[in-house]
Amino acid sequence: MLTSFAPPKIQLLSQILPSEPLLLMGAGPVPIPHAVAQANSVVINHLGDTMNKVVDNVKVLAQYAFQTRSPYVMGVAGPSSAAMEMGITNLLWKGKKALVLENGTFSNRLGQMASGVGADVTRIIAKEPSPLKLDEIKKALESEKYDLVTLVQGETSCGVYNAQLKKIAQLCKANGALVLVDAVCTLSTMPLKMDDWGLDVVITGGQKGVSSIPGVSLIAFSKDAWDVIEKRGKTGPHWCLSALGSFEFWGNHDYHYTAPVPGILAMHEALRLICEETLAQRFIRHKQSSLALQEGLEKMGLELYVPKEYRLNSVVAINMPKGIDGYQVRSYMAEKFNVEISGAFGLEIIRIGQMGEQCRSHNLFRTLHALGMAFRNEGYKVNLSAGMAAMEEFLARDSDEIILL
Ligand SMILES: *Cc1c(COP(=O)(O)O)cnc(C)c1O
Q: Residue 392 CB: number of other CB atoms within 10 A?
């Protein structure tokens, strides 16, 4: 007897999805501009003249976003973690030494990946929420020769900003190590200059700072990194994540695997909008938006998790007052106000994203209002109108003033 399976009975998508989409104000994914959504609905041949033009455009647009002239800029079919893994697996293997600078979930993930490919891994761990310490890194680099140093520019998981990135990269260069930077939440939201700062690998995702869709990421390699990759040839364990393999498509317009066409078109539009806005203007918008939000939160009576000196603007972490359940606060915001923010990986905080389209004043007002109402609903006293007023005042400030902050 052949077994036959009846078709499953399922809820329709229309029954699962909310009738009104939630405003995504968490740690990613973030809202996407209309041009990105439209491009994401188009499928064309992944090879041929039309796609070649798209690929060439994405590369020059991405070079601007990364601030690099390197030709080794590529899209990656996969989450930001796939781009992280591409960086790691192409530069580390058994016999290679990696120094992993860790201060949260994502910098830890880079360490897991480095161990996974068999590299000899040393970790310097700064407990959350602390930034990486320059003197510790210097000591480590001077006492041992490392092939690769890994770090994140902004730790989305706890809201810490590693503002010393440029200096850390200089130390790496001076001691003969390549440096790999996860800029998933920070690229195009705060300054990063790949060439000027001497960064060898820079990674970003779609669904954070650049405001595209999840699932298509970007990676850029320096000439120094590429030399290591070419010397090794195509002998690594990963086929899809091979940098040389991917460059068949991104460098030579040849077939590697069928590229995620809609996601690349979406990335094209997201990057085009970044270029249109210009990085300089975009950084000001992000800074003003995030500082206004921070001001509003504090004036409302809430406490921020990370001290001001190394607070990340791209993701703002808020301490949960004693006895208040962050999950209840977030659920109330979603149910009553259609606004979604994030919890955290094991920390007593909630997080509000300030990446790309999240940094619009109408989104800020809606979010702060929903948050204040949710705290009130939990019986926690907040001064919502003082918070809203402080935020409004900050948003009205002149951009010349914001630059100087
Ligand atoms: C979100 C994030 C990641 C992981 O992104 P995925 O797309 O989920 O793989 C890595 N690093 C940082 C800094 C992030 O914010």
A: 16
Cβ(162)–Cβ(132) below 8 Å: yes
CA–centroid distance, 356 to ligand 1, in Å, is 15
* Count of other CB atoms within 10 angstroms of residue 92: 27
Q: Is the dihedral of CA 43, 45, 46, 50 positive or negative?
A: negative
85 lines ligand 1 (CB under 6 A): no
Tell whether ligand 1 has an atom less than 6 A from the beta carbon of residue 156.
yes
Distance 184 CA to ligand 1 centre (A): 6
In DSSP terms, 64 is beta-bridged to none
- pTM listed for this prediction: 0.96
The β-bridge relationship of strands 97-102 and 339-340 is unpaired
CA distance 350 to 375: 12
pLDDT digits (tens, 9 = 90+) for 182-215: 999 999 999 999 999 999 999 999 999 999 999 9
205 CA distance to ligand 1 centroid (A)?
Answer: 7
- For the chain, residues with pLDDT lower than 50 are none
